[in-house]
Amino acid sequence: MRPPLKSSNLTVGEVARRTGLTVRTLHHYDAIGLVQPSGRSESGYRLYNARDIERLHAVTSLKQLGLSLDAIGVALAGSGIAPLELVGRQIMETERAIEQARALKENLQLLHDTLLTNNGGEDNTEALLAGVHLLTSYQRFLPGHGIRKLLGKWRQERPRWEPLAAALSRCQSSDAPVDMPEVQRLAQQWMNVAMAVFGGQLRTVLQWAQMHCQAPETAAHAGLDPAMLTYLERAIGARMAALERHLSAEDLARLDGSLGPEWEKFAADGHALLQAGTLPNTPEAGVLQARYLDLLARTVRHDAALAEKMRQAYVAEPILAHGHFVSPELRAYLAQITP
After folding, report:
1. What's the domain range around 304?
2. Residue 5 within a domain
3. How far is it, in rounded angstroms, from Cα 61 to Cα 295?
4. 88 part of a folded domain
5. pLDDT of 218-270, one tens digit each?
6. Is residue 89 domain-resident?
7. Distance CA 133, CA 159 (A)
């Protein structure tokens, strides 16, 4: 902001030159009653006195803080909203603006990435419109998510999901039924990768899958074959149907899906004991069972009723055993261990 004006009784042109404001702005402030010149020259020109200039500086300072002209008028009137509340409101408005700017930056970065990767470096209107269409699809299915970050994590997991995608494509080409054990094993392993990427949020994983099937351009952008994904969706649907015969939507939402890495480590350690011929009555087996019970409890968030529903589901639905972290062999071994 420019230094305070020391002169008084200045014309609008003089004030404009000294403050850097335009004559049009000063006329607008005058018209809405925000800063009105108090004096008159002998020729009838309106003149700004020292108090008018002081008020003008206050308006300029408050405007630099992001306040609207209406809010500034209320503040300077000395009535109505208290200054502390006014500033508090402005802080909240600023926070909202920052969040909007962050979201805009994320969308622009995603669009930039899309133009680089999906259009072979093309720099034309068609490529831009295709990128905007892709961005719209992402926002429609995954609102409120950091889509660019999720895509980055998905690509980092490529060494895990790419072999699964190839195996599922082979199953699809051979018309293998989606409830076949091998297909179900692959589908569950795919879900394990997706749950790791999406922080164990089953709902988000299902939205991700639905998006790829209904908006094939998002599948291509993620490096996936839409036809394979349709086949995978049917396989996952068979697993979900089995679970839903025993668990409600609320039950499924309560399950902690973020424990996948711990389950994987547990399964690896368990199979190592099996391969080593470790007997069920050994201390090592007891430690393994304790880990198993702890993971079960945390998966159902220590809800005994939900744990019983899960047990009944796995007893009644053989399809759920295919691809589960705990293989039938490991499950039988755990059943032999006495606490």
Report:
1. 258-336
2. no
3. 59
4. no
5. 888 888 888 898 899 899 999 999 999 999 999 998 999 888 889 989 999 99
6. no
7. 28
Tell me, yes or no, whether 231 and 303 share the same domain.
no
The amino acid that residue 203 corresponds to is R
- CA atoms within a 13 Å half-sphere pointing along the CA-CB vector of 12: 17
Domain count along the chain: 4
Within this chain, do residues 35 and 61 fall inside the same structural domain, yes or no?
yes
Same domain, 66 and 31: yes
CB 142 within 8 A of CB 154: no
Length of the chain: 339
State the DSSP string of 41-103: -TTS-EEB-HHHHHHHHHHHHHHHTT--HHHHHHHHHTSSS-HHHHHHHHHHHHHHHHHHHHH
pLDDT at 283: 93
pTM exceeding 0.85: no
Residues 111 and 180 in one domain: no
How many of the other CB atoms lie within 10 Å of CB of 325? 19
C-alpha span between 52 and 32 (Å, rounded):
15
* Phi-psi domain of 279 (left: phi exceeds 0; alpha: psi -120 through 50; beta: other): beta
Report residue 11 as tokens.
């014309």
Domain assignment present for 3: no
Kindly state whether residues 237 and 263 are assigned to the same domain: no
Task: Determine what percent of the chain falls in helix, strand and coil, rounding each to the nearest 5.
Answer: 70, 0, 25
Q: Please tell me the distance from the alpha carbon of residue 74 to that of residue 78, in angstroms, as a whole number.
A: 7
Joined together, the tokens standing for residue 263 give 């389950």
Three-class secondary structure of residue 140 per DSSP: helix
